[in-house]
Design a protein that fits this description.
The chain contains eight helices and ten strands. The chain is α/β, with parallel strands linked by helices and 228 residues long. The chain has a single domain, classed as Rossmann fold, CATH 3.40.50. β9 and β10 form a beta hairpin. Bound molecules: adenosine-5'-triphosphate. InterPro entries: ABC_transporter-like_ATP-bd, BCAA_Transport_ATP-bd_LivF, P-loop_NTPase.
Length: 228
């Protein structure tokens, strides 16, 4: 595929279609459709174990599913993870080898150091350090900022706010609002108010493994048992 096509800010579109995931008798996802356009933040909410991480991994291509169709600009892509210029993924669990220096990780991803430190000046002092010498919250912040400032056209973020202090969550939201001018973002997090705050569209996963688009978030989130 011609990556320059995918890089068009007007045409860039990520679609996950007909996603079906079952483990034995346990149906997790059923005929899911999610679309993310460049310039958009799409939020995904749902109860624990309802398949949010699975859906992101299926889109990225690292989790097999009974059925899946993932398309970029309408063209089917099998292994999206092989296209780092197209997509970057923040998994739920830490993914950076601990022995690497933070500055080397940024170089590896081609991430924009100036943009990262403009939002988080305190990251500057972490660059000469080994990743595993950072605190848990610092590690999560580095990982999230790394993915957001990468040149990829789409970002999948699985719990970007977890472990991050509220002050930094607010700054992360500012960074997301800035980088979305150049990319499409699909994110899930249990900090649902922050997700609602920054998302252009929000879906919630239901017990049947389907997505429902939120139009009256508070009420619908109660209806699906996400809120009391
Ligand atoms: N290898 C596996 N075998 C069987 N079931 C699995 C496997 N991997 C995941 N599951 C099940 O798939 C379901 C979806 O898990 P997933 O981690 O995607 O949920 P989630 O919505 O991200 O949850 P959380 O909000 O707790 O992070 C869970 O019920 C989980 O137990």
């Amino acid at each position: 595929m011609d990556l320059s096509d995918e890089r068009s800010p007007v045409a860039a579109r990520l679609e996950a279609d007909s996603i079906w995931l079952e483990y034995g008798q346990h149906r997790v996802l059923q005929n899911i459709y999610v679309r993310v356009d460049a310039g958009q933040v799409v939020g995904l909410l749902g109860r624990n174990g309802y398949g949010k991480s699975s859906l992101l991994e299926i889109i990225y291509g690292t989790r097999p599913a009974q059925n899946r169709s993932v398309r970029i600009n309408g063209r089917y892509v099998d292994k999206l993870y092989q296209r780092p210029n197209t997509i970057a993924f923040l998994p739920q669990k830490s993914f950076i080898p601990g022995t690497l220096l933070v500055k080397d990780v940024f170089a590896l991803y081609g991430s924009a150091v100036a943009q990262a430190t403009a939002f988080f000046p305190e990251l500057t002092s972490t660059f000469p350090q080994r990743f595993d010498r950072l605190s848990g919250g610092q590690q999560r912040l580095v990982e999230t900022v790394l993915i957001l400032t990468s040149p990829a056209h789409f970002a999948l973020l699985d719990e970007p706010f977890s472990n991050v202090m509220p002050l930094h969550v607010e700054t992360l939201k500012g960074l997301i609002n800035t980088v979305k001018q150049q990319k499409g973002i699909l994110l899930t997090d249990h900090y649902y108010r922050d997700v609602l705050d920054i998302s252009d569209t929000v879906y919630v996963l239901t017990s049947g493994g389907r997505t429902v688009r939120l139009t009256e978030p508070e009420q619908q989130l109660k209806d699906v048992g996400y809120l009391r």
